[in-house]
Amino acid sequence: MSAAQTQAHHAAPEGVLDKPAPDDDGAIDLLLWSRFFSPMLDDRERAEVFSALGLGSFETLAGDYWGTFHLGAPQSPVTVILHAELQLDGGDVREDLVRVMEHLQLDWAAAPLPPDHLAVVLELLAVSFEQEEPVLQHGLITRWLLPWATQVGQRLEGTAWQPVLARLADDLRQCPAPDAS
Questions:
Q1: How confident is the model at residue 73 (pLDDT cuts 50, 70, 90)?
Q2: Alpha-carbon distance 50 to 159, whole Å?
Q3: Which of 115, 123, 150, 169 stands the most exposed, by the fewest C-beta atoms within 10 Å?
Q4: Residue-wise DSSP of 47-76
């Protein structure tokens, strides 16, 4: 792990889920994406993560980040709560994700974000890589993460955010599919 990736991994106070960074570069990128979308980072920390992802300088997007993904009047253009963005039943999605957490033996009780927050689900995906759970990886990507990234990328077409969402979608597509054995 590079110094920037290590620093970005530890930039947030206690991770959304308290797990160490895996050695796999793809999983490291997933952890970096998780931190990028976490509301617990400040702009300086988010800029470090943005740079560690190889996306360049965050300065040109920093002023628009909160208004696009977290705050807006009456609502931000994009929600990072997956069930809301994908127009799914929130209780069902959260229940499914809590089951994933239990399977991965993660303690959800002290987590500061809802289980279907984008940052949480990206971190679950990284943990599923660490624990070599390809079926979980495939499910997280195909049921929630890739549909979210694709839908949001289309909505933000023509904005400075569209290439960022395209990169996230590409990173998700690069994740290996489970063996068909």
A1: low
A2: 17
A3: 150
A4: HHHHHHTT---SHHHHHHHHHHHT--SSS-
- Residue 76, classified by CB atoms within 10 Å of its CB into exposed (0-12), middle (13-18) or buried (19+), is middle
- The set of residues, in sequence order, having a beta carbon less than 8 Å from that of 20 and lying 6+ positions away, is 130
Lowest mean pLDDT among 18-27, 44-53, 101-110: 18-27
Report the C-alpha gap between 11 and 53 in whole angstroms. 14
Cα 26 → chain centroid: 13
pLDDT tier at 127, thresholds 50, 70, 90: very high
Show the tokens assigned to 70. Answer: 């977290």
* pTM for this prediction: 0.82
